Amino acid sequence: MGIIRNLLIIAAGMYLLTGCRFYSQNGASIPLGAKTFSVSYINNVASIVMPTLSQIMTEKLKTKFINETNLKLAQSDGDLRFSGKITSYVSSPVAVQGNQQNAVNRLTVTIEITYENTIEEGKNYTQLFTNFVDYPATLNFASVENQLVAQVTDILVQDIFNRSFINW
Question: Torsion-angle region of residue 150: left (phi > 0), alpha (psi -120 to 50) or beta?
Answer without folding.
Answer: alpha
